[in-house]
Amino acid sequence: MGEFKSGFFMSETACNGRVLVVDDEPDIRKVVRMTLQKAGYEVIEAENGEKAIEAINTGENRLLLDVLICDIRMPKINGVEAIAYFQQEWPRVPIIVLTGFPDTDMATSFLRSGVVDYLVKPVEGEKLRTAVARAMEQRELAQL
Amino acid sequence: MTSNSTKIAIIGAGRGGTALLDLLHQIPDVDIVGIADKDPTAPGLQRAKELHVPVEEQVHDLIRNHGVNLIMDVTGDPSMAPFIQAMKRPGAEVLSGATTRLLWKLVQHQSKLEAELFQADKLAGLGSFAAGIAHDINNPLQLILGLAENLTDEQDLAVVHDQARDITEAVKRTSAICRDLTRYARRNGTGEDVMVNLNTKLDEALRIARYAVTLQDVTVVKRYAEDASVLGNPDELLHVFINLITNAVQAIQTRGTLTLQTTVSPDGHVSASVSDTGCGIPKEAFSKIFEPLYTTKPPGKGTGLGLYNVLSVISKMEGHICVESDVGVGTTFRIEFPQVQPTTSCAPL
Which CATH superfamily includes the segment(s) B6-112? Predict the structure, then answer.
């Protein structure tokens, strides 16, 4: 029984969902990874929009990406451009903006465009996990 | 100096004489033939030596000087006007009494206005820093919060130590932002000029300019000469470089290169330049870029005071600014600083 229980938990934690975190700051990617892994999400990272687009077009990510968390102020392809790309190419992947700059106009325009959440750093772990869980629900609804 | 220039003698080297000297020596068509004061310790005489303006030991020698066509009496001594009238060469005009007092007030007003414009430009700049500051503060805060949350139930002691150290580092990074900004925002003291290392100043300016403009797609190249130092006001030079760097990065619309360079020539001349591979300045705008309130930036992005202030700081230092620009290729602003006077040398008397 004991073995079964632990096996059940293992599979449950490994299957909560795959989240792509796009941020140019390695510190932020590290701390988001830490926060989400505690809730059983698998986290993959990209340092800018270009790398994020590369990541989603590689291997099994193409099919298995559940949620995108994206910063705005980044080099190469910035958050605004990357989000526009994802919304067009991968409309079923819910997007959470995680930015250092609270900008009401930008938040409104993102939320209108279909972004599921606009979070301003620093965001508490619990709030981030809730946002991801809500995004997962949306993802599941979209697949129905 | 052209033959049309006004050749001025300044009589009196107190506060008024010093201010007049500082103002007049910046004007290209004005030639200060000399300055004199009965008191050999008057502060304006020392300033004149710094500016290479001849100091005349005897007041009457200066009044009688052949080359002078305007004598400005700023002694405040009512007996001086009749003395000058009696001694001067025919054809030389005299400004004294109420006229020079009015002039002195105008000079004071002008320098106050310039200080205000300088400060206004800096404060307008602070507004444009908001996004950059928020980014630079909130990122480390996110790290601190995430690590602190983790530490509440972290069991591995090695991880606890690592993360506590990361928190300390993040706090230090954040407090450096406040240090940079308070240095930027403070009013320039009237303190003495000091030796300023241009390489360090350019680095500091780049750090602060990052708040206003995003450097992420800009390649920064530094070509610094060793010991590129000049005598000047460190806060004013910082603001000069922030202005030039901000302009350069804003001129680069997508991707490009920002080059910061300092040179020291074998004869000791020091220069600093800021170059970009941006949009360039059209020929017809060249004559206007240093005018106050002239800007090509969209509303809210520029005050039109940046280059005006740059020019006024550099002129005050007796330096020169050269601008080279090609539309679509890029722009270079090069500042040539005056040679630093060895302390032993004196201007010819």
Answer: NAD(P)-binding Rossmann-like Domain (3.40.50.720)
